[in-house]
Amino acid sequence: MKIERLPLNGLRAFAAASREGSFKVAADRLGVTPGAVSRQIKQLEERLAVTLFERHANGVRTTAAGRRLAEDVDAGLARIAAGMEAIANITPDITRLLLSAPPSFTQLWLLPRLADFELRHRQLEISIDASQALSEPSWHDTDARLALRYGRPPWPGVSTLPLFGDVLVPVCSPTLLDHRPIEQPHDLLAHTLFDVCWSTSGSGGFPNWRDWFAAAGLAGQPLPTLRHYSLYGLALDQVIAGRGLILASLPVVADRLVSGILTCPFGDRWMLPSPFRYELVIPDNGKPPEGIREFIDWLLDEARQFSLTTPGMPEP
């Protein structure tokens, strides 16, 4: 019999009835009425010109012909079901990206923005290596290794795509100002100041509190004791708790300023331009896979929009 002419509904009803030994139970399995199962099997028997079931008061039992057909139909339906399951479980082509980035920038700028991109790009699997160390970038047909870096370009042996420049701003918790208002730069001398120590290859000459006070007209002024930390996250925890101020990279704290968790007591005054930049480090040869290209385009667009909409940021 040609495949196009197979009575599939009748064969499904027959297979269910032969397994269950009951038209009623088969109907329950198939979500139809017992009468529908009986009619489909009757039509199948008439089409084959053979009796498939012996009917009796307690149910039905397959005949010899019915048992033979049941074996073939069960095997065929099982193969169809397995084929459909295999197709449904096929994993789309996955492109994998390992992205290395500074911990504080990753936590406070990248991750809040990355979630939406990942929802729209299920075929790109992104792993984050929160590290200050510069790893060698590479890309192949289905995977890539890139890096986000903060420092003073150029980076030797690689290509870079600029995200945005940086400015440093004093920030603190709003609760700190409730107790000791800050109106002028010299007011900071009465507060605890937190400092982040950078130790990457591109961190030489990173501006600090002394540079900020000099730019604010207080060069040579004795500074209070500084509290030194190696990570922004640790220092920010102290600042958010109202224990002092930090001279922060604006991209790192911008979302906290918008939410009101942190505040800049001087607004856009006395911001200190930094010679450091945030850049995406990529291989200096070859072409990225399509999924990686989409990520790069998205990241550059996010960076541009951030620069345009964040007061105090350098123009892109």
From TrEMBL:
Domain spans labelled HTH lysR-type: 6-63
Domain of life, per lineage: Bacteria
Keyword annotations: DNA-binding, Transcription, Transcription regulation
Coiled coil, from the record: none
Signal sequence range: none
Family under the similarity heading: Belongs to the LysR transcriptional regulatory family.
Name of protein: LysR substrate-binding domain-containing protein
Protein species of origin: Salinicola lusitanus
